[in-house]
Design goal:
With 113 residues, this protein is mainly beta. The chain has a single domain, classed as HesB-like domain (Hypothetical Protein Aq_1857, Chain: A, Sandwich), CATH 2.60.300. It is built from 1 helix and 9 strands, in the order βαββββββββ. The strands form 2 sheets. Strands 4-5-2-3-9-8 form a 6-stranded mixed beta sheet, covered by helices on one side. Strands 1-6-7 form a 3-stranded mixed beta sheet. The chain is globular, with a radius of gyration of 14 Å.
């Protein structure tokens, strides 16, 4: 009998929360980071990551005053995902490690399921 996989909401790393606090301090914009999934992109789905105000039906993940919000339509596609912030030679950005994605394109924004 196969082991059951727990269905959990996305998690946010301390590094991502810290970067959100830095952005708020640098810009004076303390809005939440919205992580959404939309149809499109080169692999079928794409992430929409931007600063936004929470809606009443959003899941709000919060730590130390920094917030990440996810709409109820995107939430099932982000089950067990990890939202992080990375700094690489090519630049710094918020990233999503999504175990539900069967493949993704090189840009890290587009994926398929």
């Amino acid at each position: 009998m196969p082991a059951e996989t727990l269905t959990l909401p996305p998690s946010v790393t301390d590094r991502a929360f810290a970067r959100l606090l830095e952005i708020a301090e640098e810009t004076g914009d303390a809005r939440a980071l919205r992580v959404a999934v939309e149809g499109g992109g080169c692999s079928g789905f794409q992430y929409d990551i931007r600063l936004d105000d929470p809606a009443t039906d959003d899941l709000v993940l919060e730590k130390g005053g920094a917030r990440v919000v996810i709409d109820p339509v995107s939430l099932p596609l982000l089950t067990n995902a990890v939202i992080d912030f990375t700094e690489e030679l090519i630049g710094a950005r918020f990233t999503i490690q999504n175990p539900n994605a069967s493949s993704s394109c090189g840009c890290g924004i587009s994926f398929s399921m």
